[in-house]
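# step 3/5: fold
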Amino acid sequence: MKNLSQRLIVVLVVIIAAIIYILPTINPSLWPHKKINLGLDLQGGMHLVLEVDTDKAVESTIERISQEIRGFLKKERVGRSVVIDRLENTKISVIIRNEAHIEVFDKILDSEFPNLRMLSREKGSDEALNIMMDLPDNEADHIKKMASEQALETIRNRIDQFGVSEPDIRRQGEKRILIQLPGVKDTQRAKDLIGKTALLEFKLLDETADPREAEKGNLPPRSELLYQVKADPETKREIKTPFVVKKRALLTGAYLTDAKVEIDSQYNEPYVSIKFDKKGARIFEKVTEENVKKRLAIVLDNRVYSAPVIQEKIPGGEARITGSFSDEEARDLAIVLRAGALPAPVNILEERTVGPSLGADSIRQGLISMCVGGILVVIFMVIYYKASGLIADFALLLNILLIAASLAGFQATLTLPGIAGVILTIGMAVDANVLIFERIREEMGIGKTPHAAVKAGYDRATLTILDANVTTLIAAAVLFQFGTGAIKGFAVTLTVGVISSLFTALIVSRLIFDYLLISRKMKKLNI
């Protein structure tokens, strides 16, 4: 009796906990806990497959190295006799016209850039030394791999700040990223947020150049033509303003520590306030000190947002980005700046949108199939096992309750394959009871009392049931480890269903039998 009471307390505690966890799904106002998350196929949303342009990451590294070499040569005051350029975007071409500066260049190369690979080194017809360099294959492969990993983390940070519940973000292969965003309705905004490279740069305007001439192709060396795009509030048409800016970025968003939306008190318009770390603040202060009365362009993804005149040195490492933003545009810009720039552009290879109505149809059809399957099983158990079948049916209903409560408690995501897993576990749940009941019938057939038959039936069937369910759990674990999102959803519900069916078959139904036979002194077992 004491053992019976202890088991009863355990079962009641489990049932009460399950009801508490399932209440928010039934009525969110009843209990302050999260409800069951629905997957993309059940509540609608976005499915994207992106490809990271890892070659661009290698090109950016080559460009950065070229700029750094120029900086070292300038510091050694030999920059005027050395011409550095990029070929095919992945090679560095160096021409040294003064033989006395070759040794200086070699020292810089050996001390600062030992990883560069020398492709060719020969003197030309004009006696100038021509050098061709690039990155070794293993170094380029490492940059590509890191670009994919960083892109994954950056996109994950952006989506987390965007506020999507239970997103599914993972790598596919070497440079593809799979993204599933359940519940997202504004798909274009989500795509813009995910795909924006968000490379923030501060560049000086080349005020010696005429933008109109630059549009005709007359660009000064080491300068580029960029545009500021604004929408006319009356005509809603875009107005493009050309700017000629120097290619070299004086400061980038790599030093950003914060970006937030604020309201301009004078014009009552939102702008993005940015803050640099200590190193970035020192660079920004130095840039503004050395370029007073010059225009500094704030460039994001090769688009000029503003180009104010530097009136004085700006200490403190704070700046603002203006650009006639809407509140939503300012918030999204702040998100991508806080999350960091993508190391390389991403391209959308596959895009699917699941509408909420399609998701509602999936839920309805899934519930109908679950109910039909459950009702058929319940009827079969009652017809075949009579009153004992009712005990199995109660265990089955409790099993479904425990599965739903576990999904809510562990914040798992329920998908359409997950519903299939639940339906499968309905059959598996009664399968354990069928084994037990058949054993009990055998024991009663050789003349044992109902209590002795139940005890022997459970003792003999338990090991068989555990063996069968452990192999199922192993298969579910493999599916979860190596499967994609839909397969993982099936594996989760299958695992939860197997564990809960073991609990209901071996503990709950056994408790009911013991209560009827021991406490209620039942003499006859209807099985």
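# step 4/5: annotate
The longest helix spans residues 356-409.
# step 5/5: archive (pending)
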